[in-house]
């Protein structure tokens, strides 16, 4: 069963350019992963510095493997100092 993920990132405005560069590398590498069906970065049009990562994975096992990938672990480490608040992550299955 496919699993959907929405991750919400809120960045300090001073780091937006650097954050986007880090996101570009993350998205590029993640889209190559087995089981990745969708991995899109969306910027909130009304709240500068707020981004949504919209993910769709073939299975929860694929998502779990993604969680241990070097490119994701490095991204998390690199953006930690840039975030205004903790990242919110929502996971679920399509109901309708």
From TrEMBL:
PROSITE patterns: ABM
Gene3D superfamilies: 3.30.70.100
Pfam families associated with the record: ABM (PF03992)
Keyword Oxidoreductase belongs to the record: yes
GO molecular-function terms, A-Z: monooxygenase activity
InterPro entries: ABM_dom, AI-2_Isomerase_LsrG, Dimeric_a/b-barrel
Keyword Transcription regulation belongs to the record: no
Keywords linked to the UniProt accession: Monooxygenase, Oxidoreductase
ABM domain span: 3-91
Protein known as: Quinol monooxygenase YgiN
Species this protein is from: Chryseobacterium taichungense
Lineage: Bacteria, Pseudomonadati, Bacteroidota, Flavobacteriia, Flavobacteriales
């Amino acid at each position: 069963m496919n699993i959907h993920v929405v991750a919400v990132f809120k960045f300090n405005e001073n780091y937006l350019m650097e954050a986007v560069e880090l996101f570009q590398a993350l998205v590029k590498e993640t889209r190559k992963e087995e089981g990745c069906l969708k991995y899109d970065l969306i910027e909130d049009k009304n709240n500068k510095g707020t981004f949504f990562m919209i993910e769709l994975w073939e299975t929860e096992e694929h998502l779990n493997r993604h969680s241990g990938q070097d490119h994701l672990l490095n991204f998390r480490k690199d953006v930690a100092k840039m975030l205004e608040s903790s990242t919110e992550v929502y996971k679920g299955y399509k109901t309708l």
